[in-house]
Task: structure prediction
Amino acid sequence: MLGFFAASIIMTLISSGYTLEAYNKVVKPMLVGPIKTMRTWSFIFCFFSIGLTTRFRELTKTGAKPFWAFTAGVVVNVILGFILSVFIFGNYWSSLGK
Result:
């Protein structure tokens, strides 16, 4: 929360001296663009890391039922995530190659 607040203040101070035209021409491609790319990769790595925290050895000690419940939950999440991604971001994904 504090990082977001600090980043907002920094971006406001940087961009307050520009007109809208100059902001779109200078600040957006040089500063905002790379930040958006970094944000996207951070988001991807955060979700990727969720799977890395799974302790399969401890999960198998509890028996087969919790393991299969966890596996079923992961499968449902992956399927729903894919479906929602296609419906919500379908236009975006298809426009990337153009």
